[in-house]
What does this fold into?
Amino acid sequence: MQSCSRVPWQRVDEREDCFGWIQIEPLQRTSHALRVDGGVWLIDPVDEPDVEERIRALGEPAGVLQLLDRHLRGGAAWAVRLGVPHRRAWEGADGTPFKVLDVCDNRLWHEVALWEPESRTLLCGDVLGTLSYFRAGDERIGVHPLLRIRPPRALGTVDPARVLVGHGAGVFDDASTALHGALATARRRIPQAVVSAVRAVASARAASR
It folds into this structure.
């Protein structure tokens, strides 16, 4: 499968009510479509026209939600293509089925996560990830390296059955334990996380040569 930007991709996180598509590149940008009450919401989607048919098969498009100010990705293009609103979730998500969870709000970084209580789905942009760049030691999911010193407390208020992230594949097996373990040990695992990040950067550089 190939995108219009010539970046190879594949489907990921496929379930009856959702699916994702992930770019096969060092950053592994992951996009998601989630059906809630018949409406399909796109979360931080990369522009990949080839998945439009799959999105429409999932249900009626309802909107595009951007979780992180840096994640422009293809949200605007998808909103036009599907004829739905494109919303910056850190400014509010009224009229959607999601609860907004604060992640980071300063002049350099605006990010929220979304909680869908019926399916117990936690959707994240950059705050959590499953790439080696995010994870320390034996973690299955990790807090972003720049947020480890003060991981967002709001994420600890939910008990997810699944965690969908903006970089890497989601976590479906005992997701709540993986989440709360990552939050509880984020600070003390900073040294391990630094080693993982350095190795990931070195590996990406080597692969690009």
Remarks:
- The chain is about 20% helix and 30% strand.
